[in-house]
From TrEMBL:
This is Family 10 glycosylhydrolase. It comes from Streptomyces mexicanus. GO terms for molecular function: hydrolase activity. Residues 45-358 form the Glycosyl hydrolase-like domain. Residues 1-25 form the signal peptide. Keywords: Hydrolase, Signal. The keyword Signal applies.
Length: 417
């Protein structure tokens, strides 16, 4: 997910307070039994929000703010999570092969100061972990593994950027720059860069979004032919080799997290459709124009069935009744995939669409998201929800988040372990 506008959102559209661990429980009604109080206190579910930093989507509101202003905006969003009785924040700390902590491997993010590589004078990730934990929130460090830049000009990168030192690692595609997932040295480097943050900070989790190989762009091809010739022997097709590259990233990252910080959980929020049933009988009864398996080379179903990830958050950003990809179809499909696996299932929710008339009639109704949670409760495999994104959690312009809280989050909760 990455994110003034997620490409996933656009393509999909075209193709068709304190609820925190340790916080005080909600007041009990007079005469409530001890057993009833214990039941109420025992609620365990994911209630999360994504806090996106790419292109200053959620934070900071613009580049170049003072340290005090940046800190204030960050803690205000954490406070909003507490007010909404959430438990977890997915904080985007590596939006584009850069860093929101003093990384020895990659430059400071341009979204802080306006200049890539410029020290902002403080440690946003370290501060976020400390302030989240002080509020009883969990903090998952959110990384984008392969995106290098939202433009296609390597000369605009910081002089020290690894992509400038290793131009052979980079593929220009659709007006952006990406690391080539087919190069073992790239896979090793991005893991080293990401795991540095896991080693330095007591994060509660590590989170990937939906970007692996880039979303298709009409008229463009991702030029990894040389890497395929060099490393693709033994695979039936380039597509199978690409999927193996992403599978390796997932497995190796999981192993690295277990080695460095065994208590941290590893999760991924993929595009919501693995494959349409018309492509694969195991797929969902959808007609999505994008399929994660075929277009992003992300075998998301396998990651769950094999237990490679601790949790998965498919981005089910469609309304109930949407013709090409119905929320009411995809929730039971994912529940069936998760059944019997060790991977916990949460649902990614499109809070950002609520009240937006351009998104269709269903989203003009502020009750749409609340109905999502009501429907998902029918499936015991669904252990919670994550909302995109923090700005809307705080401002709630359509009142949809307030409806969710009133209907579903009236008592405190603990995040799943």
């Amino acid at each position: 997910m990455g994110r003034v506008t997620r490409r996933a959102f656009t393509v999909a559209a075209l193709s068709t307070l304190a609820v925190t661990p340790g916080a005080a429980a909600a007041p009990q009604p007079p005469g409530a039994s001890t057993e009833a109080r214990q039941r109420r206190a025992a609620v365990t579910e994911m209630r999360g929000m994504w806090l996106a930093t790419v292109n200053n989507r959620d934070w900071p509101s613009r580049t170049g703010l003072s340290t005090a202003r940046q800190r204030g905006e960050l803690t205000a969003l954490l406070d909003a999570a507490v007010r909404r009785r959430l438990t977890t924040v997915m904080f985007q700390v590596r939006p584009a092969a850069d860093a929101l902590w003093p990384s020895p491997y990659e430059p400071w993010s341009q979204f802080l100061t306006g200049t890539q590589g410029k020290d902002p004078g403080w440690d946003p990730l370290g501060t976020a972990v400390k302030e989240a934990h002080a509020r009883g929130l969990q903090l998952h460090a959110w990384f984008n593994p392969y995106r290098v830049a939202l433009h296609a000009d390597p000369s605009r990168l910081a002089a020290s950027h690894p992509a400038r030192k290793h131009p052979d690692w980079v593929v220009s595609y659709g007006g952006q720059l990406y690391y080539n997932p087919g190069l073992p040295e790239v896979r090793a480097f991005v893991q080293k860069a990401m795991l540095d943050a896991v080693r330095r900070y007591p994060v509660d989790g590590v989170h990937f979004d939906d970007y692996f190989y880039p979303y298709p762009v009409a008229g463009h091809s991702f030029d990894d032919a040389a890497a395929y010739r060099r490393h693709g022997a033994g695979f039936a097709s380039r597509a199978a080799w690409r999927r193996d590259n992403i599978d390796r990233l997932v497995r190796e990252t999981a192993a690295g997290i277990r080695r460095i910080r065994p208590g941290a959980r590893f999760g991924i929020s993929p595009f919501g459709v693995w494959r349409n049933a018309s492509t694969d009988q195991r797929g969902s009864a959808t007609r999505a124009g994008i399929e994660a398996y075929d277009d992003l080379y992300a075998d998301t179903r396998r990651w769950v069935r094999e237990g490679w990830v601790d949790y998965i958050v498919p981005q089910l950003y469609w309304s109930i009744g949407q013709s090409a990809a119905d929320y009411a179809t995809l929730v039971p499909w994912w529940a069936k995939v998760a059944r019997g696996s060790r991977t916990q299932l949460y649902v990614g929710e499109a809070l950002y669409r609520a009240g937006d008339a351009s998104q269709g009639a269903a989203w003009r109704d502020p009750d749409e998201l609340s109905r999502h949670l009501t429907l998902a409760k029918k499936y015991p495999q669904v252990r919670g929800h994550v909302f995109f994104a923090a700005k809307e959690v705080a401002a709630d312009p359509a009142g949809a988040m307030a409806r969710v809280v009133a209907d579903h989050y009236r008592q405190s909760a603990k995040p799943p372990l």
